[in-house]
């Protein structure tokens, strides 16, 4: 597999691993999402000034308002964080 294909496979595997820990295996509950963030993105949580910021982030990910994060919502988070970390400004 190419590096990009490997990255995509890792995204899917990571989501599936955490989503399978309780309830619906196709979505992340708040508990599952927090566990994923704590273990897979610890720098993000350390950067948060308070726990309420993490809760706001999780709530903001739930675009359809079903109180769970589906794979599409998860990918938006990863893409947004990737863009933020990449820190390239478009040329004007």
From TrEMBL:
The keyword Electron transport is annotated on this UniProt entry: no
Domain EF-hand: 49-84
A molecular function (GO) term: transition metal ion binding
Gene Ontology BP annotations: endothelial cell migration
Pfam families in alphabetical order: S_100
Keywords linked to the UniProt accession: Calcium, Metal-binding, Repeat
Keyword Repeat: yes
InterPro entries: EF-hand-dom_pair, EF_hand_dom, S-100_dom, S100/CaBP7/8-like_CS, S100_Ca-bd_sub
Any single GO CC term annotated in Swiss-Prot or TrEMBL for this entry: extracellular exosome
PANTHER family: PROTEIN S100-A1-RELATED, S100 CALCIUM-BINDING PROTEIN
Protein name: Protein S100-P
